[in-house]
Amino acid sequence: MATIVATITETLRYRGKIGQWSWVLHRASGLGVVIFLILHVVDTSWAAFYPELYAKAIAAYQSPLFTVGEFGLVAAVVYHAINGVRIVILDWRPKLWHLQQRAALAVFGIVGLILVPTFALMFDHVLHFYDRDPEVMPVNEVLQEQLQFALGFIVIVVVAVGLSLLVALLSGESLSTRKQRLRRASSVDVWFWKFMRISGILILPLVFGHLAMVHIIQGVFDMTVAGAPIVGTDMVNESGKAVEFVGKRWDYLVAGVAVWRLYDGALLGLVVLHGFYGLYLIANDYIHNKVINRAANWMIVFGAGALIILGSAALLAGVEETAYAMLIETIAAR
Ligand code: HEM
Ligand code: HEM
To answer: How many domains in the chain?
Structure first.
């Protein structure tokens, strides 16, 4: 217990003195992956609720702009995960603290070793995709698709800040900037400190397994190949539509258990709680204005709740088989 409290206090005080770059990269990669996760859970839910929108989202994923982003995302996840393991080991064994610098360097080495073959395999999928002479979504359409997320985010920020301001005005609260004080860690901080480490270790095989399936073994480019086998199942994507890929994975049973729904459910819960608590740590480090700080915290709490509800609703609803057929008809009718 004393070690945990000491570590939190020392980390807060000396943040980044050793391995400054590791700390910055850990934070930046975690933040990048959370932003991707928000878009990803929303667009995966379209497979269940708006199949036609899901087809567009996957077409955007297959565009060159997203391909560059996909390589960046994989690099961010791998760096954050390996560096996360370093943090967990060193926090657990304070006797090893004198090895901080070497451990931070070792992380870069391990990440490089993982990324070189991973990128080679991912690049191979990209080449095969372009060999098939595909219809690629133009960049302006990709950007327009993303604009809806940016507008949605702006509306949420305006509403949250507006409500927080209203609370301040009604309660006669001063609008001054809060002074940051170094406070003692509460039992809630300690609980979450442990949770971040335990959830990080639990997420690791889940995220790496997910990425292996959707980047290396099959890849996002092969989700739309008619007649291709569907990774992690004994089924085939007959229509070549991404909704069929998702629907069949979610419906695949092993001994009567929908294994990929369970897997995605565990990934969803852990990754959203871990990522949003991380977001809370970052937001509260930088946002000191009372009104904006409260609005940010509301957005984080409600955002995490909304994502878990939306993602679970999609997992429970699944993809209607008629959706594949309807989608084929809609596209053929154009
Ligand atoms: C470009 C990269 C990615 C692609 C193409 C991708 C693809 C998919 C697909 C096809 C599904 C549908 C279900 C399934 O087939 O299992 C899915 C679900 C999911 N993915 Fe990913 N994934 C990517 C990266 C990630 C990352 C980095 C994370 C974690 C941070 C993640 C977390 C999830 C979660 C939580 C679900 C379940 C969503 C729900 O319950 O509605 N994915 N992903
Ligand atoms: C794959 C395995 C992962 C491991 C081993 C891991 C580990 C960690 C650890 C140990 C921390 C430090 C917590 C602290 O300082 O109290 C952390 C922070 C964080 N993680 Fe992860 N994590 C993983 C995956 C993820 C994913 C998928 C996301 C995004 C959805 C994410 C987002 C964050 C964020 C935003 C922070 C806060 C960073 C900061 O305060 O500077 N992590 N992670």
So the answer is: 1
Residue found under tokens 């990209």 = 126
Distance CA 306, CA 325 (A): 30
The Å distance, Cα 36 to ligand 2 centre, comes to: 14
| Ligand in nearest proximity to the CA of 280 | 2
Q: How many residues belong to the chain?
A: 334
74 close to ligand 2 (CB < 6 Angstrom): no
Q: Which residue range(s) make up the domain with 221?
A: 2-173+182-333
- Compute the distance between CA of residue 181 and CA of residue 305 in angstroms, rounded to an integer: 29
For residue 246 and ligand 1, the question of a CB distance below 6 A is answered with yes
Q: What is the pLDDT of residues 161-197, one digit of tens each?
A: 999 999 999 998 876 665 556 667 788 999 999 999 9
CB of 220 within 6 A of ligand 1: the answer is yes
- Comparing CA positions, the residue from 90, 39, 141, 57 lying closest to residue 327 is 57
Q: Three-state DSSP class for 78? A: helix
- Say yes or no: CB of residue 200 within 6 Å of ligand 2: yes
Phi and psi torsions of 303, nearest 5°: -60, -45
Q: Which amino acid is at 72?
A: G
The answer to whether 308 and 272 are in contact (CB under 8 A) is: yes
Q: How confident is the model at residue 133 (pLDDT cuts 50, 70, 90)?
A: confident
**CATH number of the domain bearing residue 202:** 1.20.1300
Q: What is the Å distance from ligand 1's center to 306 Cα?
A: 17
Residue 51 in contact with ligand 1 by CB distance below 6 A: no
Query: pTM for the whole thing?
Result: 0.90
Ligand with an atom nearest the CA of residue 312: 1
- Report the C-alpha gap between 263 and 249 in whole angstroms: 11
